[in-house]
Specification:
The protein is of the alpha+beta class. It has two domains: 20-153, OB fold (Dihydrolipoamide Acetyltransferase, E2P); 156-206, DNA Methylphosphotriester Repair Domain (3-Layer(aba) Sandwich). It contains seven helices and eleven strands. It has helices spanning 2-13, 64-75, 107-113, 129-141, 146-153, 174-177, 190-195; strands spanning 24-29, 34-37, 42-45, 48-49, 79-83, 95-101, 118-119, 159-162, 167-170, 184-187, 199-200. The chain starts with a helix and ends in a 6-residue tail after the last strand.
Length: 206
């Protein structure tokens, strides 16, 4: 009976790393937060968002090229293993994952730590969200990567954060106008919203 209890406890509490890992080789790096594995699976890193790179006629965002190059340096042609969370796919059918190298380097975290991304929280808290926010704040404090540009170009304005979705909007945004008062958090600078773990609305903040 004691042995059975121990086995059940182990299974329920064991981290993914307790079990054999399936390794894949990264064959392509789309951008700073998306890769393609040797089996053809396209993987989007959970919890972070890097600037867009140029696609056809669509101009890339500031630091997008640098973020992609850093991601390439980290993972291209290297073996990785994946951890999944409660949400398995995004709207583009990309697999959502936390990505680790063979030496246990946590790729999502490294990209946030070096200032190539801002965190992208979900309504349902993900397992590494607190870590990502801690690393983001460290990068912000050092003005690393994207953060120097954001700091230097941040202007006083009126932003409204949504405590439920963890997104912040210009006060004129249609999403802000429809937001429940109980979920509203006011910010005068984008910097403050980022510091508190909010991500920008893709519709009103480019």
């Amino acid at each position: 009976m004691k042995r059975l209890t121990f086995i059940l406890f182990f299974v329920l509490t064991c981290h993914n790393s307790c079990f054999a890992k399936d390794y894949f080789t990264v064959k392509w790096v789309d951008d700073g937060d998306t890769i393609v594995l040797d089996n053809g699976t396209k993987v989007r890193y959970i919890g972070i968002n890097t600037p867009e790179i140029t696609h056809g006629d669509k101009k890339g965002e500031f630091y997008g090229k640098e973020a992609r190059e850093y991601n390439q340096k980290l993972v291209l042609n290297k073996k990785v293993y994946l951890e999944l969370d409660y949400e398995k796919r995004d709207r583009y059918e990309r697999l959502l994952a936390y990505v680790f190298l063979e030496d246990e380097t946590f790729v999502n975290a490294e990209i946030a730590k070096e200032g190539y991304a801002y965190i992208l929280p979900k309504e349902q808290t993900s397992k590494y969200e607190d870590l990502f926010l801690k690393l983001q704040r460290e990068a912000m404090s050092k003005k690393k990567g994207i953060w120097r540009n954001i700091y230097e170009n941040d202007k006083d304005s009126s932003y409204i954060g949504n405590n439920k979705s963890k997104r912040f909007h210009y006060h004129t945004c249609s999403y802000a106008k429809r937001m429940s008062n109980k979920n509203k958090v006011l910010f005068s600078k984008q910097w403050d919203a980022f510091w508190n773990g909010f991500a920008p609305c893709k519709e009103c903040i480019k």
